Protein: 1,3-beta-glucan synthase
Organism: Lactuca virosa
Amino acid sequence: MLEVVTRDMMVNEIRELVELGHGSKDSGTQLFEKAMDSRPAIAFPPPVTAQWEEQIKRLYLLLTVNESAMDVPKNLEARRRITFFTNSLFMDMPRAPRVRKMLSFSVMTPYYSEETVYSKSDLDMENEDGISIKYYLRKIFPDEWENFMERINCKEDAEIFESDESILQLRHWVSLRGQTLCRTVRGMMYYRRALKLQAFLDMATEKEILEGYKAITIPSEEDKKSQKSLYAQLEALADLKFTYVATCQNYGNQKRSGDRRATDILNLMVNNPSLRVAYIDEVEEREGGKSHKVYYSVLIKAADNLDQEIYRLKLPGSAKIGEGKPENQNHAIIFTRGEALQTIDMNQDNYLEEAFKMRNLLEEFHEDHGVRPPTILGVREHIFTGSVSSLAWFMSNQETSFVTIGQRVLARPLKVRFHYGHPDVFDRIFHITRGGISKASKGINLSEDIFAGFNSTLRCGNVTHHEYIQVGKGRDVGLNQISLFEAKVACGNGEQTLSRDIYRLGHRFDFFRMLSFYYTTTGFYFSSMLVVLTVYAYLYGRLYLSLSGLERAIMKSAKAKGDTALKSVMASQSVVQLGLLMALPMVMEIGLERGFRTAMGDFIIMQLQLAAVFFTFSLGTKLHYFGRTILHGGAKYRATGRGFVVRHEKFAENYRMYSRSHFTKAMELFILLVVYQAYGAAATSSTAYFFLTVSMWFLVVSWLFAPFLFNPSGFEWQKIVEDWEDWSTWISNRGGIGVPANKSWESWWEEEQEHLQYTGLIGRLMEVILSLRFFCYQYGIVYQLRVSQSDKSIMIYGLSWIVILAVIMILKIVSMGRKKFSADFQLMFRLLKLFLFIALMATLIVLFQFLGLTVGDIFASLLAFMPTGWAILQIAQACRPAVKALGMWGSVKALGRGYEYIMGVMIFTPVAILAWFPMVYDFQTRLLFNQAFSRGLQIQRILAGGKKNK
């Protein structure tokens, strides 16, 4: 307050006034009396200027705001940002130089066709439950919505739509809470604002500092035109030290087609004059009377509300010959400037207070980080999507532990950190002279980012990690999105395993560094695959021992010698198998950040929200896609989408996505566990069987039902009825040219075998060899049937194959009869089915009467022959050319459809039964959205229908 009065209200300096006051003792004059030159000591009323108004507001706040230490921001995000910023100031960071002397840097963001700014129609668009994005965000961020309404001076929602300006502000408010290009650009432009403020503090005189920074940011027209004004100097210095290039690959095509995204990108350039956009322009040119397509790499900026071309470089051909994202980065890297380059992904954000520390971070290039100077500066990430649902919370905690404590340990002391995070800062000069920041070969470089780290390490670089600065990052928030992301990463790791980079690094690392390198790259996925393969080996091995009679003899010998120690070991093993130790890094990270009591509380809540089910399900995704890529290749980029997820996924969609990766494997394990329960000798009691198989049952249940457990409204009866109708229509539809996989089972079935069409002979042979396990399984079951009468000759196994062939022939006859007689000769077709039914019943009667067949044998035969039929199907798919040449492909397709139908019914039935009870739906809603509940999200009203609440 004293500063406002003495520096802004008083005309004379304090020193002069004090001297005047001392002189008044003799003369009898007052302290603030007019001076000798008749100038007033206090100028009142003062001339009204922007700076004066700012000081009055400041004085008013000082007089009215209650500065209590107990008052903390209401907004949780504000608390988190303030806490991290204040803590980071005590961390070890280099001293920041003046802005003129700092390293210049660029930021680059690859963009394809994601959302830039949500349109008005997007905000009003409702899902099947009547929920719009606007309504959803209002419930997620209630305090921010109140602030927004106050800011635009609206009291009711309807008032927003009365003016175009309010609608535009609403669109931006929603977009800045999604994973949009608008949010990323806003965050990255904080670098420029921070540099201007820091340059002002470096360059301003005392008088200019007293006037305030706002006097510079709102300059007069004269200051704008004057090249020597402080405003012009700050603008020039900021442009000299910072460049932002958004590589909007498709901008040219979007502009020509009148796409809304092109207009939104132009608006971003107009609102951010220093933003540059690079894109690939495809132009038809005529040369020698012939027309051909020419490609240009173009850089543009905004000028007079239009885009203005800066550079246009002719390319030798199409820029996209490898993976899209790295090609997008590589063509635009020539437009960046400076010594450093920060790669920012489309789903990221930044904060003003973190931008202030960029000068400190860039000084790390001059610091001593061991034998080699740093070439990539690793930066911590904050996952800002954790409050959306329980799944998002699990992913947020897992990712946070990986990008903080995990990266810290990898960088020091292990020295095996590569380019894991998109906000990492590259030594630009180092990398553009060594092949760029991304490798872009098709397939093998699917995980393009980590190859930048491989290249850097192989070329005598050094990758570090720094905790004192962070950049926001969005993650997938729905189970299907998360699974697509996991699949993409697993496929990328499979391709890494086959790459030359891994081979070269493995040959050049010392033993200890190589061990660390193994587990932090492909080794994690290889170990995850071994975990599940061990379950298979364990079950098949136990089953072989029990069916062959060896297990009974071993148990008899163990009982004679005492088996207490063995039981204790098996009991402790089952606890470890639950995967609780996998959560240890997460607990450690939360403990270090927010205290171990909070960490244990969060861990217990996560277990209550079935986090173990989610992580076990993710294990299956890693196993399937990593293993398939190793065997057959064919890795491809999978677009996950970054939308807001409260949408119910249909049963058919879940079945298409998880059938091969989870459902078929879980059904196989389920059958093995049931057979082991029936024939195993080790499980003499239910307790022993429980300890032996509890973790495997947990695996089976997680893989079968997690997609429905974590699916919003997954147990609502009306949705279940609609899902069944949709699935029945899908599985019965015929495929054909142009029919998408989501419309026909046949099209989806063909897509699922696509990897087999491009695999080599070894890949096909491995598929056949792996399928032979079902024949060995059948061999063991057949000799347990009572109808075999304890006969151990090979003829029994041969007779079982005669039964299988007979069943296949019957199915073939029915299929052919349906094609030939069902349309015109329905009576003949019905007589044929009657004849087959009578023959089947007669055969069963003979077997029951004369060979001692029992009902138990029938069920055991089903358990034996169903996997055998699946093995025949898998072998036929692997040998597709030969099967097609024999004219049997139609029968294989019919057999495949039958298996899919049976498996779909077996999975759908328990879900439908649970959906009959309303309490299950309430439990699932609470389970999915518990985090949102604690923050006031009324998800019950959301899922019931938000229309009436608007």
About this structure: Residues 12-17, 20-27, 933-938, 945-950 have pLDDT under 50 and may be disordered. The chain is about 60% helix and 10% strand. The two ends are 46 Å apart (CA to CA). The CA atoms of residues 588 and 599 lie 8 Å apart.
